[in-house]
C-alpha cells in the first residue's frame, strides 16, 4: 500500500510504503543504518531538483534564479544546487568558501551581510565575487582593499526600502534596519561608488521572507522594481543586475498551503518590457533559499525512552532543540506550533497522543507537543518534516555538549 499524503503529516513530499517513510527512495530504517547513528538530517536531492524545475517552468527565461546558501549550507547540497541555479548568494566567509568549492564561476556569487570583516572583504574581492554593499563605510573599505590587491571590486548596493513584505515571517526591509542602505541615502552612496571607480553591478533589494501570501509577494516585488528604476534614474552608473530577493515561504502548520508560483511568473513577465527599456543591461534575479530546499529535508531522532508523567506520554529522544531550534519553536515563533512530525517506521497513528522531547535539561526542548505519536515504542524513529532549511546551521549545536547531528544528501 502506497500513500504520499498521510493525514498526520499533510505537507510531506515523501512516499510511505507499507507504513514506512521513504526518503530518497530508501526506507527510513535502512537509511538510518546507512547513516550510522541518529540524530541526522537527510535532504532528498530529487525534491530540490523538482522545486527548481517547478519555478523554471513558470518564470520567464530572462529571470535568473539564485540559491541563498544561508538556508542550508551543507556542502553536498550546495554542490547540487550550484548545478541547478544561476547564482549562489552567501553571507559569510565560510559560506563563500563553500560556494567557491563548487567550482561555480565566482562572477555568479554575491556576498551580503551587515558586518563583513577585513578578511572576508579580501577573500571576496580576490575571488571576483560581487559584494552587496551594506553602507558607505563598507564601500570605502572595499575600495581601499581593492587598491591594495590591485583588483577593482565588483559591487552592488543592498537597499533598505521604505516598505516591507507584508505577512512576512522575517522582515528584512522597511523602517530602521541594520541591513542595507536606506533608499533615501542611496543616491549619495551611488555618487561615492562612481567617484571610487568601482565595478558597479546593480541593486539588491530584499524586504522579507517566509510569506505564503502571493499578493503580498507580488506587491513587494513591484515596489522593489519601481524603487530600482527610480534609483537608476538618478545614478551615474549602469545597472547590470537587479536582485529583488524572493519572499516565497513554505507551509509548516495546519491551515497553511503551498504557493502556486504561476501568477508570480506572469507578474514578472509583465515587468520585463519596461525593464528592458529602462535598464537594457540589467538581468532580474530572484534569490530563494527555504522555498527551494525546505520541504526536501527531514530531521530524524530515535526514541530513547517512553514514560508517562501524570497521565501524559513523553517520548524522550536523542535529538532536540540543539539540532533543530526552529522545530522547538525557539527561532522566531511568537506562539509555539508543531511542525509536521511522525513516527517514520510506523506512519499509521492510532489516535493516541504523546509529546516528543529532547535530551537537554530545559523545558524548551520540545519537538512535538501532544501530537498523534502515542503508538511509538523505544527505538522508533521520530521524523520532523519541513527541515531542509534553517536546521542544523541555525541551532545551538554546542549546548550541553551533545554530539552534532549528521547531515546527508540522498
TrEMBL record:
Its EC number is 4.1.1.20. One of its GO terms (molecular function) is diaminopimelate decarboxylase activity. The active site is at residue 361. One of its GO terms (biological process) is polyamine biosynthetic process. Its cofactor is pyridoxal 5'-phosphate. This is Diaminopimelate decarboxylase. The lineage of its organism: Bacteria, Pseudomonadati, Pseudomonadota, Betaproteobacteria, Burkholderiales. The modification N6-(pyridoxal phosphate)lysine is found at residue 70. PANTHER family: DIAMINOPIMELATE DECARBOXYLASE, GROUP IV DECARBOXYLASE. Pfam families: Orn_Arg_deC_N. InterPro entries: Ala_racemase/Decarboxylase_C, DCO2ase_PEP1, De-COase2_N, Orn/DAP/Arg_de-COase, Orn_de-COase, PLP-binding_barrel. The keyword Lyase applies. Keywords: Lyase, Pyridoxal phosphate.
